[in-house]
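Issue 218. Parser rejects a valid record. Input:
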Amino acid sequence: MSNGDEKVCGTVRDALTAHKMDFQEADIQHATKFTVKSGAQSASINVYNSGKLHVEGKISELKTWLDHLKESIEKGTGGPVALLPAEIEKFPQTLRERVPDCDDVVLWFFQESLRCYKADSVAGAAFMLGAASEKAILLLIDAYATAIVDEGHRNSFLSRVNNRMISKKYDEFKASYAGCKSKPTDQLLAQDLTQLLDGAFNFYRHTRNAVGHPQIVPDLEKGVILANLGQFIIYIDRIYMLMRHFQKNGVVV
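Output the parser choked on:
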């Protein structure tokens, strides 16, 4: 008998088997871990005894596939298939549906990134995706600063982030958020939020910089960029969920 919820484990097992995925199954504390490999890529999906699902691994096409699997199981629609051209075309619509109040600048750069990808300009896609990510992070930092309850703390934070590079702004935000006394308790936001933001933000920034600073020829894989176009939707959704939390509950540091 599996440590994870038997019914959900069966659904995950059937989906991985149906799509001929190379996977191993092992019990961990309070969960069953399905470790999946695809070439050099590796990621895992954990099924907890509560029925909750959690995906782990470095950002990759495989991890994005598992993220889609998790969402489809949670919605009761079964397992995903490989990303098809028609599904890629729906990325902007999917982003709008998940984040109706998404900033127009973020949407524009995301759509431009998709156009570059479809035109086989991997470098252009990476650069535009990095720009979209930077705008979203700036919105997050602004929302955080505005929501700081204590005026002195708010002014101190603003003095540390104003007129600084995006990487430094993000570091200051991350350091301040680590000591925040009003973090969300919702499991989706609280669990691995910093890791998700860190991984995605740094990947988008590094790939954009690799294109924007012409020192060497960038080493960019088209499949990885596609995976990150899909991951971007989840990334923006989490950012906006966190912004709404700040706006509703305030920030106590």
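Fixed in the parser; the record now loads. The chain has a mean pLDDT of 86.
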